[in-house]
Specification:
Elements: E1 5-9, E2 25-29, H1 32-38, E3 45-48, E4 62-65, H2 74-84, E5 89-93, H3 100-115, E6 119-123, E7 127-133, E8 136-139, E9 146-151, E10 155-162, E11 168-174, E12 183-184, E13 190-196, E14 198-204
Parallel strand pairs: 1-2, 1-5, 2-3, 3-4, 5-6
Antiparallel strand pairs: 6-7, 7-14, 8-13, 9-12, 9-14, 10-11, 10-13
Length: about 210
């Protein structure tokens, strides 16, 4: 049975791969509403401080207005709402490109989700990004191209990379040496796992999500 997904659309570069299924929940984070409207999709909720939009739209939609001076980004505030609604899988769009600091903030949103026991995927034009903590990520045989794993924690221990061109066995990755960059899929089922630590995993967009 397919697990329901909370989709969050930000104002950054948008990849036209958005798919909504019954039971999914769609949040527009500020200027992400323009991306959705341009594709003919409706949001269930609009949230933001409206620095990307001139203000809430006139169309009937539930709106959460955030203060302009705040600790949470619009994307993180949307993630918190999705978690409160019980969603454990998140697709984040419009969260890369443009300002590098915004991209890094959205990678930290993936790490926040992993800390909550949830799983997020950030959609970029070239790559998909996800963060796992003491967990694993599996890929289908159809996946092609490059895949990289970087430690977000000081140390990530018990790292295994199976079914890839350059396997790792019970390795340790650190946040000061890029040992996990530029591995490759081989046409076999593959898996990246970490026993203790937090990994950022990036893979080329051959499919929507493993």
């Amino acid at each position: 049975m397919r697990e329901q997904i909370c989709h969050i659309v930000g104002a950054g570069e948008f990849c036209p791969v958005f798919r909504r299924h019954p039971g999914d929940y769609v949040i527009a984070a500020d200027g992400g509403l323009r991306h959705l409207s341009g594709m003919g999709f409706k949001a269930d909720l609009l949230i933001g401080d409206f620095d990307s939009l001139s203000g809430p739209p006139d169309t009937p939609i539930k709106v959460v207005t955030l203060p302009k001076e705040k600790d949470d980004t619009d994307m993180l505030a949307a993630v918190r709402i999705g978690l409160k609604k019980g969603y454990r899988r998140f697709h984040l769009y419009g969260g890369t490109g443009g300002r590098l600091d915004h991209t890094l903030a959205n990678i930290q949103c993936l790490s926040f989700l992993a800390d909550q026991g949830a799983r997020g995927v950030l959609f970029d034009r070239q790559f998909l990004l996800s963060v796992i903590r003491n967990d694993s990520l599996r890929f289908d045989r159809k996946q092609r191209g490059y895949v990289s794993a970087f430690s977000l924690s000081d140390r990530s221990e018990g790292v295994w990379e199976k079914g890839l061109r350059y396997p790792l066995e019970n390795a340790t990755l650190t946040n000061a040496f890029p040992l996990g960059v530029s591995n490759q899929f081989t046409g076999e089922k593959s898996e990246i796992s970490v026993g203790q630590g937090t990994l950022l995993i990036l893979w080329q967009r051959e499919s929507e999500e493993p």
